[in-house]
Design a protein that fits this description.
Layout: H1 2-16, H2 35-44, E1 51-56, H3 60-77, E2 80-85, H4 89-98, E3 105-108, H5 111-119, H6 130-137, H7 141-147, E4 149-151, E5 157-159, E6 162-168, E7 171-174, H8 176-182, H9 190-202, H10 220-233, H11 236-244, H12 252-265, H13 274-280, E8 300-301, E9 321-324, E10 336-346, H14 351-360, H15 363-370, H16 390-400, E11 404-407, H17 409-412, H18 415-430, H19 435-449
Parallel strand pairs: 1-2, 1-3, 10-11
Antiparallel strand pairs: 3-10, 4-5, 6-10, 7-8, 7-9
């Protein structure tokens, strides 16, 4: 640590003399950030008078937080970063790119739009060597390379996306006090999770709260279950083929994953209220059973955002906690993680833009948002001790332990499938239709839109 702090002191002196320096959140040399690599970056780059323009989906508090990260780039290089956030980013970036007035960089909230723009020639491939760097420096690095690689106008694969902020879906929420009272332990494998599910029933309780209701989007929570279970029953390559329909939707692998979900949602006594209640309960209301006395359920599988719908007095880390939705020990498929993430893509290249992307590879570019909260990263070189909360640190460590990372599959499918037939099909399945009939209907719809 002395070496890091010494380098940080040098960086502090250098930046203090930089006329372009900002009021940084954490002065270089302060805390356990990676100041040494930041110092080296600052020494190597002088961009005084140059500007990097960026647009993305971050507004409000998120815009304020990311701009504090960009302050470090400005202080190190003398450049100016102009960031504009928009709630209609997806429409705005296409219009500006088609008009030839796009900013240098766009921050895409998911890969679908980036892939489409790359195919149309509206994105520039990332600098040579970026793919190797990502593979070596991100947890499950090749997964992130694959997720940022798209076909260009000639059909050749190129790396277009550098991922930054990640979101995590492979979580099971529970109440520690309820587990302790019953003597339940956190399951280490899917086999253990299934055994715990049966044990809770044997003890007279209900293991799961599940709700698929979401207005016009009813059914989507079940698609997340299926995606997580596909990654736990099949290799990632099969998951990828399923998402693109290279693997038919009614393939036995998909039918098997849906029936795995049915084991949790349709087995008598496993889900609060039974299958009919699962299909009709709003997903925002479904976790409340965890907090009733006695508990109406002991576990709830949902993404990292769900605490927003917990009762107001619930404190995550104390009154509620989570564990990794585990993989099967017997299948030897590693530790897959389902989630999402934002990626930087080049929409108007420049030398300063390439230097900015080098900055985004530095641990400090991630640590500076980690310390503010509301941020997870797959960058394996960061100090996880800098996460703002214990819960975010635990989620970050799940990402660090991932052997495979994949995006929400339904978000990558054509809208009529991923945000249509798949949603409604899962409601039909939950209320009694067979997985074979449901998947055949979804595949038929996919064939119609090809």
């Amino acid at each position: 640590m002395k070496k890091v702090l010494f380098a940080g002191v040098a960086a502090s002196a250098m930046i203090a003399g930089n006329a372009y320096a900002q009021d940084l959140m954490f002065a270089p040399g302060e805390g356990d950030f990676h100041w040494d690599s930041y110092q080296a970056f600052a020494d190597a780059n002088d961009l005084a008078g140059q500007t990097v323009t960026i647009t993305g989906p971050w507004t409000g508090n998120e815009k304020e937080r990311v701009e504090k990260v960009f302050d470090y780039f400005e202080a190190a290089t003398g450049a100016t970063v102009e960031y504009s956030g928009s709630d209609s980013f997806e429409q705005d970036i296409v219009i500006s790119a088609e008009a030839g007035s796009a900013p240098n960089l766009a921050v895409f909230p998911q890969p679908g739009l980036a892939a489409d723009m790359a195919k149309r020639g509206l994105l520039t491939p990332l600098p040579e060597g970026t793919a190797d760097w990502v593979a070596e420096n991100f947890a499950a690095g090749q997964s992130w390379v694959d997720l940022g690689t798209y076909a260009d106008q000639d059909g050749n694969d190129q790396l277009y996306g550098l991922f930054y902020r990640a979101d995590l879906k492979s979580l099971v929420w529970y109440v520690p006090e309820a587990f302790e009272e019953m003597g339940y332990e956190i399951p280490e494998s899917m086999e253990d999770l299934k055994a715990l599910t049966q044990q809770i029933v044997d003890d007279g309780g209900t293991p799961w709260c599940i709700g698929l209701g979401s207005g016009a989007a009813t059914g989507w929570p079940a698609t997340d279950w299926v995606e997580d279970l596909m990654l736990r029953t099949q290799p990632a390559s099969v998951y990828d083929q399923w998402v693109t329909n290279e693997l038919p939707f009614n393939d036995p692998a998909v039918i098997g994953a849906i029936n795995e979900f049915g084991w949790f949602a349709r087995t008598d006594g496993y889900a609060d209220g039974g299958a009919e209640a699962v299909a009709s309960t709003d997903f925002r209301d479904s976790p409340t059973g965890l907090f009733e006395l006695p508990p109406k359920c002991y576990m709830h599988r949902q993404a990292s955002f769900i605490p927003a719908f917990f009762p107001e007095d619930v404190e995550v880390g104390t009154d509620a906690d989570f564990f990794y939705f585990p993989s099967y020990a017997e299948k030897d498929l590693g530790n897959p993680v389902l989630g999402a993430g934002t990626l930087f893509g080049i929409t108007s290249p420049s030398d300063a833009t390439n230097v900015f992307l080098e900055f985004m590879k530095l641990p400090i570019a991630h640590e500076a948002w980690m310390a503010q909260g509301g941020f997870l990263t797959a960058h394996a070189g960061v100090n996880t001790g800098l996460y703002n909360t214990d819960s975010e640190r635990a989620m970050g460590e799940i990402l660090q332990g991932a052997t495979t990372f994949r995006f929400d599959g339904s978000d990558l499918m054509p809208g009529e499938i991923g945000a249509g037939a798949f949603w409604t099909g899962m409601v039909d399945y939950t209320t009694g239709a067979s997985a074979e009939d449901v998947t055949a209907a979804i595949q038929s719809r996919w064939d119609e839109i090809k």
